[in-house]
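In this section we turn from sequence analysis to structure. A common task in structural bioinformatics is to predict how a protein folds when a small molecule is present, because the ligand can shape the pocket around it. The inputs are simple: the amino acid sequence and a SMILES string for the ligand, here nicotinamide-adenine-dinucleotide. Study the lines below before reading on.
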Amino acid sequence: MNVKELLSLKNKIIIVTGGAGLYGKTIVEGLAEADGTVITASRNLDAGQKVAEEFRDKGLDVHAMRVDQADHKSVMALKHQIQNKFGQLDVFVNNAVTRPMKGYNAPMEQFAESMRVNATGMMDILREMTDLIAQSGGGSIINISSMMGMFGPDLSNYEGTNMGDPSPDYFFHNAGLINLTRYLTRVLADKNIRANCISPGGLFNDQPQRFLENYCKKVPSGRRMANNDDIKGLIVLLASEASAYINGENILMDGGMHA
Ligand SMILES: NC(=O)c1ccc[n+]([C@@H]2O[C@H](COP(=O)([O-])OP(=O)(O)OC[C@H]3O[C@@H](n4cnc5c(N)ncnc54)[C@H](O)[C@@H]3O)[C@@H](O)[C@H]2O)c1
């Protein structure tokens, strides 16, 4: 096959959870620019619709649906909506996250709330979306973890800032997601479903100047944080047939920070 055909997402129905968020929005844009039909799903339907309209104005095929991944009824409603509207699902980008825990000593209720959404809810929506992909004859799962799922926190990044200390739940659930990816590769093989993971570094979002100074000097790729273009090529690769033989992989996308 021609490499442009291999990378094309034409006729693929793709769902991105948290597609109105920071990484989610650029992921949605990249997938749609590669000719995919992309659904962004998150709790706030208005925010999703705003993103979908913005991209439709640019000629991209983007739709918005509502889901609270911590609510099984809401997950099932999303599943039925996708079935009714599109009749198939080819790619699931598991990107939504909530960050309720504020530091190491925060109340355990905050850790539990994180697990309710980022672990239990995440597994629920993953299983239901995977079922739709299986019914469609197979496809691709892309989990979005973090470099913080692979390494301990670099506390020197926070020196001189008032950003607080990094929360343990985030390191815990992101690390789990990386090995869950390998689990899925084995367990879903006979359904013709591949699973891969991306572990990005920090995306530029007007962080405090002192944080940027601490962080960026450690990044070999341009001494900068990730920008909106950095994840697009990788997400399209993993969603497309061009990565048919990449399976169970976790790709660190941190500009060489941990080289
Ligand atoms: N932002 C970064 O610098 C960064 C760095 C590395 C990895 N990541 C990873 O990227 C992914 C996205 O992070 P982000 O920073 O873009 O997040 P964000 O906070 O900007 O957006 C999160 C999205 O998830 C949605 N969401 C939260 N709870 C939900 C629920 N119960 N049901 C459905 N949707 C829900 C929100 O509505 C929002 O759209 C995460 O997996 C995160 O670990 C982010």
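The helical segments are 3-7, 22-33, 45-56, 72-86, 108-135, 168-187, 209-216, 232-239. As an exercise, try to locate the residues that line the nicotinamide-adenine-dinucleotide site and compare them with your own expectations.
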